Amino acid sequence: MEQTSSTVIVGVGPLSAADVVAVARYGAQVRISDQSLEEIAKSRAVIEGLAHAETPHYGVSTGFGALATRHIAPELRAQLQRSLVRSHAAGSGPEVETEVVRALALLRLSTLATGRTGVKVETAQAYAGLLNAKLTPIVHEYGSLGCSGDLAPLSHVALAVMGEGQVRDAEGNLRDAGEALEANGLKPVVLAEKEGLALINGTDGMLGMLVLALADLDRLVKTADIAAAMSVEGQLATDRVFAADLHALRPQFGQSVSAANLRTILTDSGIVASHRGPDCNRVQDAYSLRCSPQVHGAVRDTAAHATMVAERELASAIDNPVVLADGRVESNGNFHGAPVGYVLDFLAIAVADLASISERRTDRFLDVSRNHGLNAFLADDPGVDSGHMIAQYTQAAIVSELKRLAVPASVDSIPSSAMQEDHVSMGWSAARKLRKSIDGLQRVLAIEILTAARALDLRAPLTPSPATAAVRDALRVYVEGPGTDRHLSPEIEHSVQLVANGTYLTQAEAVTGPLL
């Protein structure tokens, strides 16, 4: 697959996760490769041939789903495709985020560009035009069962390409889709045989959210290592348990990576060195400190498995029916979202547990019986001041919510379409709750770092490692050091932003080099 710094070329090979993030999150332009345009034209010729055949073909000359037994007369087939999109654009609830809708549209375009769907070249080009004009169709929270793919969300995108429904323009204004297309020099698509079906049969919404979540989690699991290192320092824990030879005894890959990060981050820590001598008896720290690599590493390994599934899905052509290379048009079940739904649920479990161990490390700072000489709740004057007491409450509330969000959606199949679609993936629902989980994890880690930074200051004149000091100093640009109680919510939000925009990670890596 060809790519420049500003344009993602769709076709030739599968999109990468980086391509999806570039277009969905950062507004990169897209272009369909010349080779793909040729393949699209070839498969369209096959569909047009079938449209005139006496034998009925699903989606070309028949109805859909439980109505597939009806043969549709040629003069009604354009109406059939329009009716399909209009009726399936049945979402409800809040608007879905712009980056998710852009990922959804890009991934549908990627399948169209394989030349296995039978759409016209103009239809595929219309999706590229929509993305490049930064027009975002209004897609709603509810409506997808994850089989036959993300029908309702994809239908809302297809509706906009037809010039119907509503979109957000590049400035975020809500506009009629037809007017917005015209204002950007784009023409509505008139759908022909098979095209409506090709535009709505896919796992694109759940896959897009999986790719975006994995990009976020790559940053967050490294940030969790930073937070854990700060807690190890602030609670006068030992770093001996992170030794490479100890972790080699259990060759779990992610665990070794996390332990290596912790060793790197804690390099030259004056606080750790202060109690590293032969008389140190801190060899049995609490699990939340001692077992950080084991938990953080398991999250990494879970994400690695999810990445493998995502990469396979990015290389897929999801439609039903599909036009095969030999010209056959065959029905199939590749639109079923089970592979994606399972890993979305798996990641929600991992995210909840990563947040849980972070909250436990934070709580230890606040308990005077466990924080090794610090004031109760890190308060300036305990009793008069409450310190970070309620910050931990906020963490605990979020962690409890993440545990609820970790309940799998993919086991909750519900039949639809008059029992024709009698087993569905619920992958869209799994993806929606994972996005909430990722947001919660960011907030939990932000509070741990906020609390640990206060503890590091209270350990003066002992000095933290250069890496953790850099993280603390990045926070201190926005949040003052220890003192009497202040309005805590804005300080938490500053820390959340520093997690979310990668500042903490960037500052640590400026000292350590790239973390693993």
Provide key terms for this protein.
2 domains, Fumarase C, Chain B, domain 1, three-stranded antiparallel beta sheet, mainly alpha, two-stranded parallel ribbon, Fumarase C, Chain A, domain 2, 516 residues, 20 helices, 55% helix
Order of helical and strand elements? EHEHHEHHEEHEEHHHHHHHHEEHHHHHH
N- to C-terminal distance = 26 Å
- Taking all Cα atoms into account, the compactness measure Rg is 26 Å
Helices, by number, come to: 20
From the spread of the alpha carbons, the general shape counts as elongated
Structure in a nutshell:
The chain has 516 residues and is mostly helical. Helices cover 55% and strands 5% of the residues. The protein has helices at 17-26, 34-51, 77-88, 98-112, 121-132, 151-161, 177-183, 195-200, 204-234, 244-248, 253-265, 270-273, 287-290, 292-314, 338-366, 389-405, 427-458, 466-476, 488-500, 503-512, and strands at residues 7-10, 29-32, 92-95, 136-137, 140-142, 166-168, 174-176, 322-323, 329-330.
Give a verbal description of the structure.
With 516 residues, this protein is mostly helical. The protein folds into 2 domains: 196 residues, Orthogonal Bundle (Fumarase C, Chain B, domain 1), CATH 1.10.275; 303 residues, Up-down Bundle (Fumarase C, Chain A, domain 2), CATH 1.20.200.10. 55% of the residues lie in helices and 5% in strands. The chain contains 20 helices and 9 strands. The strands form 4 sheets. Strands 4-6-7 form a 3-stranded antiparallel sheet. It has a two-stranded parallel sheet with strand order 1-2. Helix 1 packs across helix 4, helix 9 packs parallel to helix 15 and helix 15 runs antiparallel to helix 16. The two termini are 26 Å apart.
